[in-house]
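Bench notes, afternoon.
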Amino acid sequence: EVQLVESGGGLVQTGGSLRLSCVASGFFFDEYNIGWFRQAPGREREGVSCISSSDEPTYYQDPVKDRFTISRDNAKNTVYLQMDSLKPEDTAVYYCAASTTGYGLGPYEYEYWGQGTQVTVSS
């Protein structure tokens, strides 16, 4: 059974940092491209960042460039999203997703999804 489990969310003040983790199981992790997405209340799910099965290239949504960093550790079947200089507008549920063929910041590219982790940034 394919499973993606996110963790690391929480409540943080503006300017703070969080590191999200996405642990995968049930498939050959190093063959999959992984994306991070977020969805705020009343808004559509949007792509935040993605990393290919071979580590490069990586992509970032413009509002998070230079603040967020995506990385992966295939030995641990884990993808990380380091989030620094957090802003209230980063508040959302964050999801990771996996695909062998799709890649990019469009949710339609990915077949497997986690349940999400809440990130709340207070002003």
